[in-house]
Design a protein that fits this description.
By secondary structure, the chain is mainly beta. It has no helices and 16 strands.
């Protein structure tokens, strides 16, 4: 579920079952919710540092910024020297809800998220609806540059219904809008005249964005 951010500028709205004030931090426990004008965080336990205003959340963590939703059991959030929000999580699920239903989603061993970059390690990536990943990319690393609108995957393996169909040591694509790249594969069954068993075909299309008014579509098709 996508949460609404707080409308109080420059402040944190905090709810929890219990709280404790220590020398340099606040310790919140039980159904914790932290909300501000730019982030929402829910967890079983949250530590807030009074030194640098960083957060450390654990247990059923849900983190949301302006475009991404991250769920994990452990997540930290802090701000850099430019006051930009940085979130880091381990063994996490992510979803780019800012792009709507066509936003990227997947599972990653680690995610490093800034306002301009998303870095994923040992991860999956798909544009299918959440939990309905007919096709996906598995990669050692995926870097999504939100400013340049480019994604780059290292050791990328494209899978369709769990079947590996394409490997590339390095693969790049446009995150939003038109760009050259693979389109959704198609799998279908058919019957040959006189044949007892049905056959199948697999079609893997590749789209070339040549110019604003020109494009080309090539498709590799296998028929059993």
């Amino acid at each position: 579920n996508i949460e609404e951010f707080s409308k109080d500028t420059g402040s944190l709205d905090i709810e929890s079952d219990s709280s404790e004030i220590l020398s340099d931090k606040y310790l919140l426990k039980g159904d914790v919710e932290v909300n501000s004008e730019s982030l929402f965080l829910a967890a079983d336990e949250v530590e807030i540092s009074t030194v640098d205003n960083s957060l450390l959340a654990s247990g059923d963590v849900r983190f949301q910024d302006q475009s991404y939703l991250i769920t994990s059991d452990l997540l930290s959030a802090t701000r850099d020297e430019n006051d930009e929000l940085i979130a880091t999580a381990k063994n996490a699920k992510y979803q780019d809800f800012g792009a709507g239903l066509a936003g990227a989603n997947g599972y990653t061993e680690s995610i490093y998220k800034t306002p301009t970059t998303v870095l994923l390690k040992n991860t999956t990536y798909s544009l299918c609806p959440v939990n309905k990943n007919d096709w996906l990319i598995e990669a050692d690393q995926i870097e999504m540059n939100l400013v340049k609108n480019r994604g780059i995957a290292n050791n990328a393996l494209v899978k369709f219904y769990g079947i590996p169909i394409f490997y590339a040591p390095k693969y790049s694509w446009v995150l939003v809008g038109r760009g050259s790249g693979f389109l959704t594969p198609n799998y279908s069954k058919y019957s040959e005249p006189g044949a007892k068993d049905s056959s199948y075909s697999l079609r893997v299309p590749y789209y070339f964005n040549i110019a604003p008014d020109r494009d080309l579509l090539l498709a590799l098709t296998y028929m059993s």
